[in-house]
Amino acid sequence: SPPGLLLLTSFLLRVEEGHASPTRLVCDNRLIQKYIGEAKDMEKRVGQCQALPALSCPVVLPLVDFSLQQWKSKSNETKRREILCDLALLVDAVAGAQGQVTQECGVKQLSQLYQHANSFLLLLQTFSWEAGPWEPGCSARSTEQTHITSIFLTYRQLVQGKLRFFFHDLARDLCK
Question: What would the DSSP string read from start to end of 72-98?
Fold first, then answer.
């Protein structure tokens, strides 16, 4: 079974067991460390693909850098929505890049990245929140890129940054 499917299944099983609660997912810090490791591995593997051409049509990637001080002042719902916007933009960028890449190594890595990013997107959409379900149509800060490696860099930075801190913040509230 593809790794993205396994990731989604493990997420959904945890969500199902906890009645759509992120508790079981965020309380085990080893999980986010595992996802960070996978993001680094994917970034490394795509860097090893031979002569990946630049994309003829640039993809729009979210700018995922953030100020920790500003991040801490946001509500968990605001953080979740911001990450959802970033993930939606990233998933679209990966899909756009997939349509332009023909080299087998690049296709394989983009497919894996799509599965992982889409799994996080689906997961965050299924959490139960007071504010109701997420609706698309957000405006994340973004940039256009033509290098495939920048898509993987953005994903790693998102998982290592916003997602890791978001899970940490949720754990503080949920894992007593």
Answer: HTS-HHHHHHHHHHHHHHHHHHHHHHH
